[in-house]
Write a structure and sequence with these properties.
With about 140 residues, the protein is mainly α. Helix content is about 40%, strand content about 0%. The chain is elongated, with a radius of gyration of 27 Å. The model has no long low-confidence stretch (mean pLDDT about 75).
């Protein structure tokens, strides 16, 4: 297994140069956090990104390039043709998660709500230690006879 060198308290990027305003530091910190998070996700399932990829992300962190520009350069670096449409165009129009209180449940939700409501709650009927759960088969029925 390849040695991973990520330290959760550290950053992959150089510190901010002196002389930045509070707003510039705040924006840079947001970009750095985003880039560190992306690298950590990549490393959770594989090796650390190449030095070239980290150098491109450094330019994003420093505000020299946008994330879209870095993505295009990274794809080019790996010989992958950039998509003709922006990635946002391929996102679904509806949100992937719907607030259950905002609309009526569909048939599948109704089925599972009914199924779960028929189950006895573990917390509503406290039993004394040693009481058997009547919904489970007894493991000792044959031994008791």
């Amino acid at each position: 297994m390849e040695k991973q060198t990520w330290n959760p308290q550290a950053s992959f990027f150089r510190p901010a140069p002196p002389g930045l305003s509070i707003e510039e530091l705040e924006e840079r910190a947001r970009r750095e956090h985003s880039a560190n998070h992306g690298i950590a996700l990549v490393m959770s399932n594989g090796p650390q990104p190449s030095e070239e990829a980290i150098a491109l992300m450094q330019k994003y962190v420093d505000g020299e390039y946008t994330l879209e520009e870095v993505l295009a350069m990274t794809l080019k670096l790996h010989g992958i043709e950039a998509p003709s449409e922006p990635a946002a165009a391929s996102l679904p129009e509806e949100p992937l998660w719907k607030d259950p209180s905002s609309e009526n449940p569909d048939a599948e939700e109704i089925y599972w709500m009914e199924k779960l409501s028929d189950r006895p709650s573990r917390h509503s009927d406290p039993k004394k230690p040693g009481d058997a759960d009547p919904t489970l088969p007894s493991l000792f029925d044959s031994a008791e006879k």
